[in-house]
Design a protein that fits this description.
The chain is of the alpha/beta class and about 210 residues long. The chain has a single domain, classed as 3-Layer(aba) Sandwich (Rossmann fold), CATH 3.40.50. About 30% of the residues lie in helices and about 25% in strands. The protein has helices spanning about 5-10, 10-20, 25-35, 55-65, 80-90, 130-140, 175-180, and strands at about 45-50, 75-80, 100, 115-120, 140-150, 155-160, 170, 185-190, 205-210. Helix 3 packs across helix 4 (about 55-65). The longest helix has 12 residues, at about 55-65. The chain starts with a helix and ends with a strand.
């Protein structure tokens, strides 16, 4: 377990979950409606999230499918923090089949592939020397799409986070993924502003990447 994995698996990660307990699923639903217009690009039948926390993104996806009268997707969440994992595993608001894994983006292995593999606010907490392994995990897990929703910076930079200088970095994660895996191309991208009254998600830049057949 590397330094950042230990940080998020411990009390630091638990405190994050407690601070964000009031996050609204409706905001995430609006976000996912931006990423997928549920017809034009396509609809994933299976989804895996690395760093799923308590499952708010997976809950939002399951609700979108239900409201559009679509067959529920097979969902999976990988979460390193034991407290958050237990909340994910027992999340009854996720109205779809769910596989919950108490694991890390670095060590997770599966013979299965999912239509969509994604991170939201996870790669920013991976130290630069460990990023290539995280990209590899996303690539292995994805059958068709990868979504990277993180803090964007054209040049890599370290950002102080809750008094620490070893816990948050911004960079062009999607660009690095595309450079590493030439069989993926940019399909869609956007930005969510923290002052958006309908979808306030902390200045996230998102990039939907699609595997080329």
């Amino acid at each position: 377990m590397n330094e950042q994995e230990a940080l998020w698996a411990g009390q630091f990660g638990t405190d994050y979950t407690v601070r964000n307990a009031s996050a609204k699923t409706e905001h995430r639903m609006l976000f996912w409606d931006q990423v997928f217009d549920w017809g034009e690009i396509g609809t994933p039948e299976s989804v895996i999230e690395f760093g799923a926390n308590t499952g708010i993104n997976l809950e939002a996806i399951s609700r979108i499918f239900a409201e559009n009268e679509l067959s529920p997707p097979g969902l999976a969440g990988v979460e390193i923090n034991p407290h958050s994992y237990e909340l994910l595993r027992s999340n009854r608001a996720i109205h779809a089949p769910l596989d919950a894994f108490h694991d890390s983006i670095h060590s997770f292995r599966s013979d299965r592939e999912w239509d969509l593999a994604f991170t939201m606010g996870v790669l920013i907490h991976v130290a630069p020397e460990h990023l290539q392994g995280a990209y590899d995990s996303l690539y292995r897990a994805s059958r068709r799409w990868v979504l990277i929703a993180e803090y964007y910076s054209p040049k890599p930079r370290e950002i102080e986070y809750r008094g620490r200088t070893d816990a948050l970095w911004a960079r062009d994660f999607a660009g690095e993924f595309l450079d590493r895996f030439e069989d993926y191309k940019l399909a869609n991208y956007g930005f969510v502003y923290h002052r958006d009254p309908d979808c306030p998600l902390d200045d996230i830049s998102w990039f939907l990447l699609e595997r080329q057949s």
